[in-house]
Every structure is written in structure tokens, then in C-alpha cells.
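Two proteins were folded this term; both appear here.
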Amino acid sequence: MRKVEKKTAYHLQVYDILKQQILSGDLAPGEKINEYKISHEIGVSRSPVREAIRILEQDELLVSTVSGLIVNPLDPVTLKNIYQCRIAMESYAAGLAAANIGEKQLAVLEKSVEESRAYHKACQYDQVLKANSVFHTTIYAQCGNSSLMKMIEKYSALVDLTKTQIFSTYKRGEEPYLTEHEEIIKALSQHDAELCEKLMRRHIEGDFEIHLKLLENETI
């Protein structure tokens, strides 16, 4: 595990280290958090570890159970809640983005699809994850509503955790989501707000159904 440096507040460094461990899957969903072990491995006292853990709880990457703190297990109920929030916020943001998006952003979206296909073929799922995040971030960044963007970003850590699971852990295939990405790009290029919102809603709903199936297959 990475060690801390003196130039930055220790609890923020510990937070970044643990967050990356969670999002990379090194700390798996459901895994119990051992405060003493973390402080020993990183080389800091338990105080900055406790503060980092508090922030991770606010992000909902860690949750409290009767047996202690664990990495969010992403059970079916939790997944449903996360995806419902995404549907409500990102679909509406996509509709708003249709009025604001320009050629530069459309080119970024098209590149993300091309890169995703290439990374899938190379089985580079960590890069698939990054390209997928670029696609969605580029769209909602064009919504023109700073309050909505803050709300979406508030859930970004949890969303990233679901994407890590669906891509890096379950090795999700490139279809149908990349074809759906292309359809969304086309609607955005036509500045069709109603269609953009409809397509994004259908896209995220489909992601949720596939994620549930992957989760169920793992537990069979």
C-alpha cells in the first residue's frame, strides 16, 4: 500500500489511498475495514485513518454494520437506489446538454466510444472504465445547471464503484451499451433534448438490468 508524504494533510492522503483501493477492487465490496491494519500499512497514526474513514462513509463507499465498517457491498437494493438516482439526474442532464453541446464535446464522445471498443478487444477493462466515465462526464458537464452537476458529482464515487464492478470485476462486454452511446451521440448532435433524455434513461435502465444479472450469476 502507498505511503503518505509530509507535504499534504495525512487524512486526505489516506482518504485518496483508501478510495483508490476501493475503486480498484483491491478492497472488495463487503470487505471489513481494519483501522489498525491500515494505519500500520500506510505508516500513519490511527487519527488520520479515522478521519479518512469518516469521509469515505460520507461518500457511502464504506457502510456501518453490526460487525463493523465494510466496503459498500453493492447488494441489489443498494444498486437499485444508485441506478434510480442516475436515471433521474443523468437523463435530465442529457436532455439539457442537447442545447449546449458543441462539436468539440461531440468529438470527445465519439473518441470515447472508439477507445472503448479497442480496450474491450484488448481486455483492458481499467481503460474501458475510464473511457466510459469520460462519456458520461462530458455529457452532464454540458447541462448548464451547476446545482444538478453538484448533485451528480456527489454520487460519483458510488457510481464509479458500480462501474468498477460491472467492468473490471465482471468483464462486461461492449454491447449493447456502446451502440446505445452512439445513439445518444447522434441525438445530441441533432440537439434533440427529448430524445437525448429518453435514450439516456433507457441506457441506464439497461445497465441496471445487466448489472443485476451479473450479480445474480455470481451468487448462483
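Next, the second protein.
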Amino acid sequence: MNKRVYLLAIVSFVVGMVELIIGGLLDLVANGLDVSLGQAGFLMTAFSLSFAIAAPILLAVTQRVDRKQLTLMSLAVFFLGNVIAVFSPNYSILLVGRIISAASGSLLIALCLTMVPAIVDEKYRARAISVVVMGVSGSLVLGVPIGLMLGNSFGWRAPFVLISILTLVSMAGVYFFLGKIPPKPAVPIGVQLKTLKNRRILLAQLTSIIFLAGHLTFYGYLTPFLKMKMGLDGQWVSIVYLVFGIAAVVGGGIGGLLADRFGTKTTILSVTALFAVSMFIIPFTTFSLPIFLIILGVYSLLSWAITPPMQSYLIEVSAGASDIQQTLNNSAVHIGIALGSLIGGLVIEQASSVDLNPIAGGIFVLFALGTAFFSMGKGSRKAYLKKEAMKID
């Protein structure tokens, strides 16, 4: 397989760190900038919302630019966003830095995924895409715990210093090793949105939004929960995030295996239901760290196990528009992250504690179970088949 794929995986690793790191630093950021946990949580909301909106727009606007040149430009802007975060004197400037990082980061991930088919043989395509995706999951397993250790030891700005350095290393790698890659025409945004007229697709995308909203209502505020409810210090928090990351990556693999064995529909419904149950159980496990870690591991595993079957399901129902649905689902996921981090912050502001966050998140996941059920229901399927039959006639 082409070695440039691993270079793209490094880029996705760095972007993944920026997206995921802030959740573990919320209390440090809040104390350092003298803002509430809810306000600090809005940094995740703004990032994910910017990520979701920017990706399809920037990819369409820059469709004629050479991919290597565009990657270097995006990395430069990404570097700027993180430097702003390092030197931000107040909350507002940090928010601006996060938005800049999100917009450029969204384009970088999209570029990494769309460049893969151009640099590998067709027989290696799926494997190459999985390597790039593993860059993001790798940032969850290694990058986030390392960033938290730096943050706890040297302050919340330290992880952004590390990310800035890694960005410069990535720029050097792209400049010297990526090679020229011609642009590939992008699908207009209007064409992408028209596919949502299919009820099954719309409900499936809505399921991703609500599922991630429920997940982030708790996970986005996991650090305050661990410190306030469990009494853990910074080092233990890093260990918990490491456990979470390992379980999440394992969950992604298990989700694919379950989908192949039992089908996408059964897997999506089962994983979503069990995920909700795990969230409702979490508040009752805080009396014992070992029990809490076991349930958290299950929760983490299920949080990523939903991705492979959902992607496969969208391919099944999209009838020739699978590439479009993958792009839209990426945006849906980040809209859900933005919504969940916002809701989690509001729950904390209203309750003055993090106690209710897993319960509130679990309720949202139950709604996701409902939208998934209606997407896969017989009535929705009949309407879809009737529409396809009319097209054939």
C-alpha cells in the first residue's frame, strides 16, 4: 500500500486531537479564563458546529485547487487557529481560535478521505480509508490522554502547543512526500441535500444527530463528572480517558463484525438500546471505581460500535448516492456533537452539578432509538420501494 496513506493518517490524528482534547480540559479552561463549565463547554459546541457546516462548503468551493496545495494551505490555517488558542488572553479569542481550527480541520479530514482513492490501487482502497480513519481513533486512544497529562502538568494551553508542533511536522511531511494530486469535482451541496427527501435516509441521519447529542451530553463533561462525583485527580482522569479510547476503538471493530453477522438494522437497534441502558446505569456505579470503569468501557465500546452499521445502512438505502450520504453523515455526527455539548452545558447550568448529564443523555439516545426504528420500519421501506419502482417505470 502507498506509504502516503500513513502521512494522511498522521494529519487526521492531529486534527482528531484538536477536536477531542477540549472535553478533558473543561475545568482547567473554565478556571483559567474565569468562565463557567457551561461556557467552556460551548467551545465544543462551536467547534463541532463549525466543523459540520464548513466541510461540505469548503470542499465545494475549493474543488478546483490542487489537493497538495490545498492541504498545505489548510494546515497553515489550522496551525494559526491553534497558535491563537495558545496565546488567547480571554474566552472570546479562544473561541475564535477554535472556530478557525474547526473549519480548517474539517477540510483536512475531507481531503484525507477523498485523496486516498487517488493514491492507492483500487484493491487497497477500503484498507487505505480505514488507515486514515484509524488516525482519528488513534488520537482518541493516545493523543487525548497525552494531551490531558500535559494539561494537568503545565496548564490547558500546553496540549495546543503540542498540536501546533505536530501540525508543523505534518506540513513538512506533506510538502516533501505527498506529491501533486489533481482535484476531483465535488458534488454540489444542493444535490447532496436533495437526497434527504428519502424518508429512510433522513431518519437515519437524524438518528446519528440525536445519538451523538445524547453521547456528548455526558461524554463532553466526563472530566468534571470524574472529578466531582468520583473524586479523581488529573492523572486518574487521563487513565480513564485511555480506557475509554481503547474500548472505543475495539467497539468500532465489533460494530462492523456484528453488522456482518446479524445485519445493519438489528445491530443499530440493539447497540442504541444497550447504549441508552449503559448511560442510565452509570450514575449508580460511582461508589466503586472498578465497577464504574467496566460500565464506562461498555458505554465507550457501544458509542463507536454504532458507526460501521450506520454507514453500511446508509449505503444500503442510498441507491447510488452512498458517497453523498457518507459526507452528510459526517456533518450529522458533528451537528450531534455540537448539540450534545450545548445541552450538557445547559443541564449543568440549571442543575448546578454534573449528576444529571448521563440521565439526560440517555433520554436523547432513546429518541434516537425511535428515529432508527421508524427509518427501518415496514411502512418506510414500502414507500421507498414504491418510489424506486416508479423511477424504473
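Residues 187-393 form a domain with the Growth Hormone; Chain: A; fold (CATH 1.20.1250.20). The longest helix spans residues 125-154. These notes refer to the second protein only.
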